Amino acid sequence: MSQETTIRENLETHIDEHAHDHGHDHHDHHQSFISKYIFSTDHKVIAKQFLITGIIWAIVGGGLSVLFRIQLGYPDADLNWMRPFLGKWITPEGHIAPEFYNALITMHGTILVFFVLTAGLSGTFSNYLIPLMVGARDMASGFINMLSYWFFFLSSVVMAASFFLATGPASGGWTAYPPLNALPQAATGSVLGVDYWLLSIVLFIVSVLLGGLNYITTVINLRTRGMKMFRLPLPIWAFFLTAVIGLLSFPVLLSAGVLMLFDRNLGTSFYLDQIYIGGEALANAGGSPILYQHLFWFLGHPEVYIIILPAMGIVSEVLSVHSRKPIFGYTAMVYSLLAITVLSFIVWAHHMFVTGMNPFIGSIFVIFTLIIAVPSAVKVFNWLTTLWRGNIKLNPAMLFAIGFVSLFISGGVTGIFLGNSSIDVELHDTYFVVAHFHLVMGVAAFFGMFAGVYHWFPKMFGRHLNSTLGYIHFWGTIICAYLIFYPMHFEYMLPRRYPTHAGFDTFGMFAQLNEFITIAAIASFAFQLMFVFNFFYSIWYGRKLRVQNPYHANTLEWTTPIRPGHGNWDGEIPTVYRWAYDYSKHGRDFIPQTEPLSAYELEHGEHGDESDSDIIQHEKHNG
Amino acid sequence: MWLAIVAMVMMFAAFTSAYVVKKADVSNWLVFELPVMFSYSAVIIVISSICMQLAYITFRRNRIGLHRLFMVATFFLGATFLVLQVLGWQELKAEGILLKGNVAGSFLYVISGAHFLHVAGGVIALLVFVILAFTRYNKPEDTLLENIHPDKQIGVELMATYWHFVDVLWLYLFFFFQMS
Amino acid sequence: MTGWLIFIAVLLVLIVLFQVTRTLDLVSQLRGDDDRQLEQNTKLHATGLFIFMVLGIIGFFWSFRHYSDTNIPVASEHGVYIHNMFIATLIVTGIVFVVCNVLLFVFVYMYRYRKGRQAVHFAHSNKLEFIWTVIPTIVLTGLVVFGLQAWTKITGPSSNDALVFEMTGQQFFWTSRYPGADGKLGLRDYNLICPENPLGVVTKEYVEHRLNLLEGNAALGVMGEIPSLQKRKEELPALIANLEAEIAKRPNRYKKEELEAELETLEDELEDIDDKIKIRMLNVERIKNKYTEDYYMANSEAMTWGYDDILPSQLHLPVNKEALAKITALDVLHDFDVPHMKVKMDAVPGMPTSFKFTPTITTAEMRQTLSSNPIWQKVKEGDTDPMWMNFNYEVACAELCGVGHSAMKYILVVETEAEYEAWLAAQTPYWNAVASSLKISGLSELAPRPVVEEAASDSTAAPAAADTTAIAINY
After folding, report:
1. Which domains does chain B have, with CATH numbers?
2. Which end of chain B has fewer CB within 10 Å, C or N?
3. C193:A331 CB<8 A
4. What pTM, to 2 d.p., does this model score?
5. From the list A249, A268, A295, which residue is nearest B106 (CB)?
6. Do the beta carbons of residue A127 and residue A43 sit within 8 Å?
7. pLDDT digits (tens, 9 = 90+) for C373-426
8. Does A550 contact chain C (CB < 8 Å)?
């Protein structure tokens, strides 16, 4: 059964006619504002919707982190000036109320992990690049694609609404462990906030699944003539596998969430057992909080890869284009992505070494966890070799891609500590963990996202970003990122999620360091605001893009008109004859994918010695 | 569609593996008999699945009359299944197995409830197809083979796929609960 | 006002900066020579990255020196394994970290864009890729093997003569319990938890006391939670009606809002009160179902374990003796975290966990060590001694548990065997502390219970109680 027709049929049977055949009707530009920009089925518009919503959420999420960093860095400061907009969440002494502090960290995590780095990153670039890079007029189903965005939007609205609850938003951590999040008595945020949180996450899961279905179908079925799977640019591989991971792991979170909703509202006890709280011995018996953790992390760990794979894909492309070299070890890159995809499902319990889980099971997860470091290491070495003997053009996109590699190395190596269960006993739930995952999947994924935005902004909006601001943005961000998260490793005994550590003599010694980190965090946030300004300013007033292919890149998106309409290509969709990475081959700077192989030319991968012989030629050429 | 099914399979796999895990570590696990109604409903849904397949085959062979008959049959069998499920839950309730009670019972309700929702969605879709079967193809030329748009054929095929999926899913769940 | 001025000033500076950057972009366009421009930019930023790398590496090594004082001596036996693993991993990953980052930035600097130069078309090399798949695999295998060896030692079974104690987390404090003279911790049941029995230790008397508290006992003058809630439920409608009438009487808004708020709380209370009663009735039901005469018969020995349990206000452990912490939680997840001992284990309601460890440095020795550490020379506010003099091992909670998560501090004192014995001898069983102040049946001064089945229990429980007092005297 053909997937394309499958999805189209879904449209026809379940939905009225107007969504029909949109993807092929690119001559019709007389659309109203609403159908063009709001309820658009054009993948490019939907991508921009994801991106802009993601940016707005990033500002919110980042802003929340500034708030709690202020509390952490200056636990004694008088914050009464925040009262006008935080109201009762500021205590009479002028501190952030502990319950609100917990809500802040919870929302910061949820927003950044799900809304920014999942929807904003993979949502944006999968939508934007998949049809353009595989040579399709649009996604397999524009309508489902649109639904995907609007489910995300609804989910955002619900999450945003939870901020205005009298009892505050969810405050039990982004992992929402029961019983803290299952019992209204346990925390103010658990009264209603968690219901909103769960509802929002359920809507979000629907959005991810709809999006993922589309991405997979499009990559499998709508590739243009000649676009074999092993000619796909690496970002497409990454988006494709990301969607596969999402499709397999998010339903599990859905189950976990549904069971939690039952526990909260219908009196079941899936996650509850023998609880005495608030002077009452509850009737719940027979459940297990650990069950939730298993279900959650079965999603939660693949989620990390859902975040980082698209960034890896984008960075691979950007590094190759701007160093004017083919990505080194394309096949190895694809297989390492595949390996990560598979392994990501069997490492989840490394988040649970100290939950009292059977130690033997723990050791199995240690092995898998450290195995997953191998494909990651291979990717790093391949990126490094891609740079070797290139001709590296440092525009902001390339700088961010290089920054990504550096941060990925720095954050990745600390994963070796945490994956080893014995060391994890010491480090579990400390700032060492915070530093690790912020570097490797937080800031690094952001760098991938920035690389993508700077690289494809001209394609998206037909204008350039201001590159001077871009350079400042890069330097500000990478310096601040290291200043925030590198010293955090030294707080390896400091427990997370404490609004103040002053109660403990042992933890008190980090007060100065915390203050320093807070200053760096605020500075970093200011640099991001600068980027946001640059972004929106350049959409309307940026320097216009005048050439079709500004980077001399090989991939198909640069063969579309400067401002592509709905349907992407004016004439026929181009045919592909080669892989995407023929840079500096046979003395030519670049050879687009649409150029047929010349008479004596061999395609990449047809035999292994070609690249070596090319070096020899090069050596001769350079003397 | 197949991808969507994969997603649904993952969800039910999560539920059932949670059930297995829970069962392993809870000492006071409630052992219960499945309601008789659940076995009846299993039989019904198998029959309805056969009807659906026949409806699909007749549609492909352009026997619109028979197609209509089988579609209606499938629809009513599907609806019967839903009724039987509700009766089954009442039977459970009468036996004192409540949603709020032992985790084993809670799981039974949640899992069969999730399946119920899937079937209910299927029954609504069936209704749409029944209406389509009766409103389309009324003129003789409509029933000519070449006039049946491939997309429409795929619609019925998809419906059949989904229906077999919920059928197999129920059989799996039924035997899963039966075993444990 | 000054705030606004600063704001405007900052805004102006930002606008000026932005105009400068815009002009720079425009100028570069006017020059037209994009390639040249790019070459210059590339050189600038490649040099920048190189300097960044050099400073970074200096910072990397400097930081270890700078923060060396924040490291604390490892105070437990298994902590040393963890520490060694940590150091080994640090060396391996430190090399990878430095080498990879240096390669990255050096490559960027060396192969920066120059007009007219051509990059090498070097797409793959099976040999290279094989090498760097195999090397990480070997290194990681080594780490896994050593890591799992340590892990097995840490999580292995505890020795039979290990000192057993119990830590219970609840919002937002820890309660510790020692087994007392019989070496056995009393059974626990969360249904029996009440102010006098904070951990729900099971003894026949506690069962009765809990029932009294819930159902009331006229003979003892205990109202009981269920009857008082029922009474409250009957009163509430009248109170609400009164309040409504009062509100209706007030035409102006004088104090009206306060009354309305009060009304709302009363209405909420009425709404919840049925649930509250129900929860308690179920509680009673569970207690009565479980603690039958048969149960007492079958567990007659276990019923006495709880009498000599000790609930001290601090943890005390002898040095160099293995201790086994049994970790539980009453309400939500907590985590028993002793940073100096590198002990960390979740406390899960309904699922007891445990962690064995052997403290190797006494509190006094640790104070001595820290006396030369500059960080611990600080004198805290309102204190006269430097911090090291008052050093104590601290227990913290490492799993988010709500508002008071950061307040779950508990003191752990490690001392010599002799000191420990002396401390233990000074502790009285918790039972002694509550028994006299409680009207628990089973103590001789109590009047016979009106309920027949409970009256029978008096005779069996009384000697047990007397027994524990005797033991207490023996300490």
Report:
1. 30-179 (1.20.120.80)
2. C
3. no
4. 0.89
5. A268
6. yes
7. 998 998 888 888 899 999 999 999 999 999 999 999 999 999 999 999 999 999
8. no
